[in-house]
Fold this protein.
Amino acid sequence: MQRGFKLTGVLTDAELHRLPGAPSVERAAKGPVAVIECAEEFPCDPCEYSCAYGAIIVGQPIINLPCLDEDSCTGCGKCIAQCPGFAIFVMNLNYSKKEATVSFPYEFLPTYKAGEVVNAVNRSGKVITKGKVVDVKNLTNQDRTVVITIAVPKEFGWDVRGIERKEVKAYDR
Amino acid sequence: MGSMSMLTTDVAVVGAGPAGLYAAIEAAKAGAKTTIINEYVEPGGQLTKQIHKFFGSKEHAAGVRGIDISAKLLGSIDELKVEKRMGTLVWSIFHSNILAIAHNGKSEMLRANKIILATGASENAFAFPGWTLPGVMGAGAAQTLINLQRILPGNRVLMVGAGNVGLIVAFQLLQAGSEVVAVVDALPYISGYCVHSAKIARAGIPILTSHTVKKAYGEISVEGVMVVKVDNQCKPIPKSEQDMKVDTICIAVGLTPLVELAWLANCRFTWVASLGGYVPLYDDKMETTVKGIYVAGDAAGIEEASTAMEEGSIAAISAVESLGLMTQQRAYALRAEAYERLRSFRIGPFGKLRDQGKQFIWRERQKYAERI
């Protein structure tokens, strides 16, 4: 089995925790925080401008990997829809006693509504748990990138990164 | 040419993609009578079908969708009263300053003091048994179908090529409602950006590196494809075939600069593999070896929209400088700024090779100048 993002498109845990955009395990345990899964140096910096708290630093040169200042990050999630690469997630491992939330960008139709029960997927698109949609944001400044937040059992917080797409019926096409 | 009318302009820009639009805007801003010519009826080039948000920096409209960048640029073109000739083919260049153009079956001659070739690129083909069956198409063609013409090319798609084009179009096919069964690439690694491959992976689509197409089959159109694993010499590994039921095979195996007009104008060329093949020689003003003919964007070597925009500006600045519409100092300063922005785009694991390619072209151009 091949491993590593250059071979599969999927970050391994080791690759993830090495990223300057990933929060520490200790910080993540405390509450909402951004996880910037941007692993390659190419010119891009909208995330830096999206953060009102100055918690994302790209700097010069522009190919630098985004660096998360985990103490400044409030987990507000404004950066999620601004990343053209859909690489930013917000994780709240402290959502409730048993649940964590994960927020992620979503650009498929039909979209989801709060309250829906969904199949949550990991970075390989594999369904790993059920989840419940707790929030769907589609603000003007997100420019049609919907941000969905789902609650999942706490132990899946670091792994859930999306949901299964709804089936598109032939007549929807 | 006797009975043909002769049109005239200061700066003629061929191609209305990101490079051409930036060139036309810059030339018109400097006060040059500018004409932009585009073969397709709609201007915008690839931007018109790029529904995704762009990477890059603030100066290059990062985070904005290609379609919206295009709309904004076209607004500027109209504001600046650039003459638009859409649905118009340039079929030759005579005497290095006359463009032969055809529109609706009628040919005309356009004399331009300066010509900027921003003709873009074409998709590379990839031949395998069955590749002529209906259902095999370029990834760019599939993208045109779904995003411009709102037609789904097929229900089950195999994407060949895990570079950025293959990964982006595979994702957009999903958005359009197709099922993508896999992305395959003969390379032993994914050559596109990891953020794109991560989106594909999260959608549950396998990315099979070291895999290629053995053959496509079907009665009257594609019904399936045999995918085979390859070793590090790119040789098929026996008994590793996988049969995939698909009705569409999209090919995304690279682009080649579209430079026929530069050949016709007798520009000197060189081969630069990292920039997609034969590229006309040019200097830091984007001027080819034929005086008054400039080149910009993918036609000057395959890169990205943001770099194409900068090159379009550089070519136009140099053209209007040469026409006496801009002072040397101002042109020099503007070019320096553009190169400063370009520099930040041509570093890192992805940009470095392209930078080396550009340096090579400039060196070859210098050598050529010394020879004559």
